[in-house]
Amino acid sequence: MHTEVITVRTGSRPVVRDITQEAARFVADQGDGLLHVFVPHATAGVAIIETGAGSDDDLLTALDDLLPTDERWTHRHGSPGHGRDHVMPAFVAPYATLPVIGGRIALGTWQSVCLVDPNGDNATRQVRFSFVRG
């Protein structure tokens, strides 16, 4: 197994950050196998979605609708409503496993690998890429 950790700057607002190029660079020339993408954070996730056409903003809106940033949350440290950020990974998992064929991630035409970070309290995130040869 081959592994690498990258640092992604997410800033101080909720964001969906496309990390497809970084993932593609990691698996380039690796042959066939599986790419596992994992974020070791309690308030971030990985999504395979379309970006650039509004779907990334739609995902953040859907998360806000489903998990509002209000005072209903028992987990209360951090900025107001931060407890919802700790629930989000149950809906947007902190990992994804993708097929790699001939050193290329086998994504659909409009699919991208994205880091989903609703937590503005942390400006940077770690992402671990692991490749298992098939």
UniProtKB/TrEMBL annotation:
<dbReference type="Pfam" id="PF01894">
    <property type="entry name" value="YjbQ"/>
</dbReference>
<dbReference type="InterPro" id="IPR035917">
    <property type="entry name" value="YjbQ-like_sf"/>
</dbReference>
<dbReference type="InterPro" id="IPR001602">
    <property type="entry name" value="UPF0047_YjbQ-like"/>
</dbReference>
<protein>
    <recommendedName>
        <fullName>Secondary thiamine-phosphate synthase enzyme</fullName>
    </recommendedName>
</protein>
<comment type="similarity">
    <text>Belongs to the UPF0047 family.</text>
</comment>
